[in-house]
Amino acid sequence: MKPSHDALGAPIPALPLLGITEKNVGSYSVRLNKILPQLNPFSLPREALYDHLFGHRWSDKEKNRRYHIHGKSVLQFLQLEQGSSQYLFMGCFSMAGMSVKKSYDGPLDLVYDWRGHEDESLAPFVGRLVISCKRDQGYTGMDFDLTNPKNAKSFLERAVVHSVRPTPFRVRPFPGYDQMRLSHPELVAAVQDEEWKVALGNVQGVYLQTDLSNGWHYVGAAYSRNGERTGLLSRLTEYAFGDHTGGNLRLKQIPDAASHIERYFQYSILEVFDMKADARTIVEREHWWMQTLSSVRHLDDPCPHGYNTL
């Protein structure tokens, strides 16, 4: 007997794909981590990312009930974009104790112990399984205790497979040129991601590097030379690897430049041009942005404030 067309098009429940059914669902909890305006977890190195995912959020009893991880094991998911109902599977971990860790931006934080507690049988789905899960309107919690029959029923039925990527997800979806803002670790992942490579490889443009440790800028231009089709991708790839300076004089002068750039630099796009635009136009716009953002440092500057030279 052939399945009906309705059955062929029906959503695939996500939890059974991970081996979680009505029989064992009560052993788990789910944490749906959000993308926040002030912090994009995808920008963090792996250790810092998982410390963030396992952060112990609240201390008072009422919030403890709704915002702390319960159950023997937790399924960690990370929202792909702010406001989205799509979440990336980040792993399944057995719950142990808690430790005080230094967070990526400095302060100490109480973190659930996750190192050495991952369920390796589900590792093939980590970074690849994307689920769709619409949250109840008005509910702001991130932790869902599946010993609660209502939560268990909701996730078994409403958490469905959106996609399974062929390779692990390393950077968020390309957001559009005017929305691009990447840390250095994100830049490294982006220039190796097919979606980002297509987007960045098909335009020329003026880009901005910002040193978050001091607010200084470097404005640069990416354009085709000698008839070669290069685009932004080629130039940004130079910053992703090697010493990360792209050969720029002032960037090379930063003490321990590679390490500093990896930790503090942020990359964005100021203007894009199609591949037919001439280099002179792009360079003129580059210099306009240099003056606008005051990114040129002169030798006699009493208060140095930029990384560009003329």
List descriptors.
elongated; four-stranded antiparallel β-sheet; 310 residues; 2 domains; six-stranded mixed β-sheet; 11 helices; alpha+beta; single chain; GIY-YIG endonuclease
Q: What would you say about this model in short?
A:
The chain is α+β, with helices and mostly antiparallel strands and 310 residues long. 27% of the residues lie in helices and 23% in strands. The longest helix has 15 residues, at 279-293.
Number of helices: 11
Structural class: alpha+beta
Order of helices and strands: HHEHHEEEEEEHEEHHEEHHHEH
* Spatial sequence of strands, sheet with the most strands: 7-1-2-3-6-8
| Biggest sheet descriptor | 6 strands, mixed
Distance between the termini: 74 Å
Strand content: 15-25%
**What do the pLDDT scores average to?**
87
**Rg, please?**
23 Å
Q: What do you see in this structure?
A:
The chain has about 300 residues and is of the alpha+beta class. The chain has two domains: about 5-165, no CATH class; about 175-295, GIY-YIG endonuclease, CATH 3.40.1440. It is about 25% helix and about 25% strand. It has helices at about 5-10, 15, 45-55, 60-65, 150-160, 185-190, 195-200, 230-240, 250, 255-265, 280-295, and strands at about 30-35, 75-80, 85-95, 100, 110, 130, 145, 160-165, 180-185, 205-210, 215-220, 265-275. It is elongated, with a radius of gyration of 23 Å. The chain starts with a helix and ends in a 17-residue tail after the last helix.
